[in-house]
Amino acid sequence: MKTDLKNIKNIFFDLDGTITNSKVGITKSAAYALRSFGISVTDLDDLLPFIGPPLKESFMRYYDFTEQDAILAVRKYGEYFSKIGLYENAVYSGIESMLHQLRLKKRTLFVATSKPTYFAIKILSHFHLLSYFHSVFGSELDGTRSQKDEVLLYGLEQRHITDLSTTIMIGDRLYDIYGAKKAGISSIGVLYGFGSRFELEDAGADYIIETVSALSALLTGTKLV
């Protein structure tokens, strides 16, 4: 049963593909890491599956890395990402206006990302968005708490949120939707990021929205012009 959005008080946002378009930074960072293992990637679009899931899993799944090599690859990824990749990024048009409107409506906003919290905060600060969020929840730098359900459950616990009917997760990939289900909250899948309609429908998103303006209208109870 869908949550009545009129009752929503707490909103968790994914970061990559939901707040920011991080395609360039993430794919270049992944390509940098792969080069250290002698793997050359000529088309960065081949690395789009790295956007969303935990990095270690992606190296193991898409390039058959052992767990040990995947851990090393994540470290190499971080070498590029921490200095350059995190800034090869852009906020989706309309996001800041939506966040502002939600704050005016007394919604409490959070970020829930598989990205390390340290980097998520740096990105949000860089784009002057950090002040809109009550808290930012992500993984640790060592990869701990990288699954989306782990991040959400941690956030719910830390903020003492017990009425799950007033809480929703917004993201662009199946990991966001599955994570929300495991955490016991409703979800909105967005199509302006990196996931497909089929992916989000198959994962069981409660709502699927095509644009930032449509998402803003849904959350704020306004009509699209």
Identify the CATH class of the largest domain: Alpha Beta
Q: What is the CA–CA distance across the termini?
A: 29 Å
Structural class: alpha/beta
Order of helices and strands: EEHHHEHEHEHEHEHEH
Can you count the beta strands?
Answer: 8
Q: Any idea what the radius of gyration is?
A: 17 Å
The number of domains is: 2
What is the residue-mean pLDDT, rounded to a whole number? 95
Global morphology: globular
Which percent range describes the beta-strand content? 15-25%
CATH superfamily of the largest domain: HAD superfamily/HAD-like
**Share of helical residues:** 40-55%
CATH architecture of the largest domain: 3-Layer(aba) Sandwich
- pLDDT under 50 segments (min length 5)? none
Major sheet details: 6 strands, parallel
Q: Oligomeric form of this entry?
A: single chain
CATH-assigned fold name of the largest domain: Rossmann fold
Give the count of helical stretches: 9
Notes on the structure:
By secondary structure, the chain is of the alpha/beta class. It folds into two domains: 5-21 and 92-220, 3-Layer(aba) Sandwich (Rossmann fold), CATH 3.40.50.1000; 23-87, DNA polymerase, domain 1. The protein is 43% helix and 16% strand. The chain contains nine helices and eight strands. The strands form two sheets. Strands 5-4-1-6-7-8 form a six-stranded parallel beta sheet, sandwiched between helices. It has a two-stranded antiparallel ribbon with strand order 2-3. Helix 5 links the parallel strand 4 (108-116) and strand 5 (135-139). The chain is globular, with a radius of gyration of 17 Å. The protein starts with 9 loop residues before the first strand and ends in a 5-residue tail after the last helix. The mean pLDDT is 95.
